[in-house]
Amino acid sequence: MRTANINCARSIAIKAAQHGPISGRALPAILLLLSPAWTSAQIATPGPSDAPRVNADPAFPFSNEIAAFAKAKEANDSAVADVLFLGSSSIRLWNTQSGFPGRDTINRGFGGATTRDVLHYYSRLLPRAAPQSVLVYVGENDLAGGATPAAVAHDVLALLKKLRADYPKAQIAYLSLKPSPIRWTLWPKMAAVNMTVAARSRVGRFDYLDVSQTLLASDGLPDASLFGPDGLHMNARGYSRWNKLVDDWLDRSETTSAQGQPAPGITTQASLSD
Asked: pLDDT class for 161, splitting at 50, 70, 90?
C-alpha cells in the first residue's frame, strides 16, 4: 500500500513538473501521500470483513482451552464418562468432579463461548466414548453480544438436535439461561430464549431444567449472595443449588435409562432452598 502511494505521489510530481512549478495546492497533497502516518492509517483501517469478533465474556480467549480438550481426549481415549457438561464459562467454572461424587464427569466448558462457538468446535469437544448423560448451558453470551432471542433459540436447538443425533441413547438436558446481577437488563431476552427452548423439549427429545428461579431472591431480583464479585459467575453457594437440581435429574435419568424408556422431554423447576 505504501509503495503504491509513493509511486502515485511521484507520478503526480513528475506530471506537475512537466507542466511547470508545483502549485501551492498540489504540494500539500503530495506530501500527504508520502507521509508514513497517512500510509500507516490506510493499512490499519479495517474493512467490514476485518471487524473484531464480538465477545461478551471477560474469560476470552479460549483457544488454549480447546487445545487442552484435544490433549485430554488423546490422553484418555478409552475413558468412559457418565456425564458430559458442555457450554460456556458457567460450565467451565463448575467443579463437576466434587459436585457429583461417584460420577465420572467430563467438563467441556470454555469461557466466552457462544452457541455458534460450541457448534464450530463441536467435534473437538466431544469425548471418544458416548456419555450416558449430557448437560448443556450456552446462549447467555450470544445475547450479551447482541444476538436476538430468536437467533439464540435457533442455534441452541440446532446444538441440541446435533447432540440427540450423535447420542440417541443418552439423557440430554438444557439448563435454562440464568439471571445475574450484571446482566439483569438482559433477563427479558433470556426468558424469551428459555420459553422457546422449553416448548421444543418434548419434540427434540431433551429435558429442560429451569435453573433460573433458584438464583432469585424473595424480591424477584438475582440473589447477589449466590454470585462472585463480577456479578456474572456464580460462587460456591450458587453452584450448590445447581448441584442439587442436576443430581436429582441425573438420578431420574438413570432410572429412566435402566427401564429402557426414551428421553421424556420434561421441564423441571428448581427449588429456592439450598
From this structure: very high
Q: What is the pTM of this model?
A: 0.73
Return the CATH architecture of domain 63-269.
Answer: 3-Layer(aba) Sandwich (3.40)
Peptide bond just before 46 cis, omega within 30 deg: no
CATH 3.40.50.1110 domain locations along the chain: 63-269
Residue whose C-alpha is closest to residue 135's, from 114, 109, 113:
109
Query: Distance between CA 257 and CA 185 in Å, rounded?
Result: 39
Q: For 133-149, what is each residue's pLDDT tens digit?
A: 999 999 999 999 999 99
Q: Which residues pair with 234 in a beta bridge?
A: 227
